[in-house]
């Protein structure tokens, strides 16, 4: 029998969800997507999540990935979502919208993606002391030691050269400043060099939509640590969220 879960990934522009085959990390059926409400307040977002689950006729456990620090199921930050998330008890919020009896896990989106990569993606993600990064609207990070997660690392907000790393080197920064891959890779090198200096990982695994184009920028990076493109890319957040709830992981 197939082991099936459901994951939701909440992003600045879209809220996406899919059934996930937990044995191989593949989606089952189409991914559902609804635009993120504006403003992206906790109740408005939770209502969209409820709508996706209704559409998909899923009443089982659900894992939810959010661009926020989640400690003991309370959101402690809100980058690219409404500031009213800060201090929100996400356990209480999502149970109110999705049903009191439903099993729900909420975790940081990059942490979810990192976990998915460990199980179903690039084998290097599961070995050694790895820093997994997602490049998108922000820079998300997951600290992985032999595939186990230390949650909420938030390396996108480390100050590098007087700026937040994600302001300098997210893929949104590349778009905003219309940087070539080569110019942008210089910025990424600067940020990775700082992570390298502080944490000495055995490897960086780089994900997010822009990892699809890894051949255009990874070869330009100038750091010593190996940089390995992730395999799962944008699918990872949903898959990792579904995995988290199935393993009762709720940071
Ligand atoms: C947020 C992180 C998130 C990352 C990727 C950052 O701005 O602070 O929590 O993981 O963006 O979405």
UniProtKB/TrEMBL annotation:
Keyword terms, alphabetized: Kinase, Transferase
Domain of life: Bacteria
Keyword Transferase: yes
Entry-linked InterPro entries: ATPase_NBD, ROK
One function term, GO molecular function aspect: kinase activity
Keyword Kinase tagged: yes
Pfam families, sorted: ROK (PF00480)
Family of this protein: Belongs to the ROK (NagC/XylR) family.
Protein name: Polyphosphate glucokinase
Natural source organism: Corynebacterium halotolerans YIM 70093 = DSM 44683
């Amino acid at each position: 029998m197939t082991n099936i879960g459901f994951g939701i990934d909440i992003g600045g522009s879209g809220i996406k969800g899919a059934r996930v085959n937990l044995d191989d990390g593949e989606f089952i059926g189409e991914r559902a997507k609804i635009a993120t409400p504006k403003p992206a307040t906790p109740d408005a977002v939770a209502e969209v999540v409820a709508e996706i689950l209704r559409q998909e006729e899923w009443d089982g456990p659900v894992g939810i990935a959010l661009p926020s620090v989640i400690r003991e199921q309370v959101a402690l930050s809100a980058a690219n979502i409404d500031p009213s998330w800060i201090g929100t008890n996400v356990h209480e919020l999502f149970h109110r919208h999705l049903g009191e009896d439903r099993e729900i896990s909420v975790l940081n989106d990059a942490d979810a993606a990192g976990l998915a990569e460990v199980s179903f993606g690039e084998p290097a993600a599961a070995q050694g002391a790895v820093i997994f990064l997602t490049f998108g609207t922000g820079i998300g990070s997951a600290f992985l030691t032999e595939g186990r997660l230390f949650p909420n690392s938030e390396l996108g907000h480390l100050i590098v050269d007087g700026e937040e790393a994600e302001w300098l080197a997210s893929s949104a920064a590349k778009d905003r400043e219309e940087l070539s891959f080569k110019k942008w890779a210089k910025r990424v090198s600067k940020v990775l060099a700082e992570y390298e200096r502080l944490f000495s990982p055995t490897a960086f695994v780089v994900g997010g939509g822009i990892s699809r184009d890894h051949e255009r920028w990874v070869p330009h990076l100038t750091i010593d640590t190996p940089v390995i493109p992730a395999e799962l890319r944008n699918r990872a957040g949903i898959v990792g969220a579904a995995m988290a709830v199935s393993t009762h992981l709720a940071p």
